[in-house]
Amino acid sequence: MAEALGAEIFRQGGRVTDIRSGDAFMVQPQKGELVLSRDAGYLAGDVHAGAVVAGTYGVGATSVAVTIRLIDLTNHRLLSIAMTEIARTPTIDVLLHGTSGPVPTAYDRLY
User: Fold this and answer.
1) The whole model's pTM is what?
2) CB 24, CB 33: distance < 8 Å
3) In whole angstroms, what is the distance from residue 54 CA to residue 71 CA?
4) Closest Cα to residue 47, out of 84, 22, 12?
5) List of long-range contacts for 89-98, beta carbons under 8 Å, 24+ apart
6) Each residue's pLDDT expressed in tens, for the chain with a length of 111 residues
7) Do 64 and 92 meet the contact criterion of CB atoms below 8 Å apart?
């Protein structure tokens, strides 16, 4: 969801910085060449931003509740907030648990 919100902000003319991009490519066997990481050791230095996208999710027996916020970092006010509920499917369970199974595609229905 953060990716979709970032894409829309960019499409509307906003400036978007991806903090997961490192200073160089990482080459990992069986995975290829990567430039995005969640490992703090690979990330670029300090990033100054006026706002940030943050999200949470809660897993239920049959669905996942997802909340996403756009937060102004200068005054901590919410610029936008949205919530949705996604039905649990085998594809969603793969994303939740990281187990093998169907690989999600852009054609998977998330509702």
Assistant:
1) 0.61
2) no
3) 8
4) 22
5) 92/64, 96/59, 96/64
6) 677 777 888 898 888 877 666 665 666 666 665 556 666 666 666 667 788 888 888 999 999 999 989 889 899 999 989 999 999 998 888 888 876 655 555 555 554
7) yes
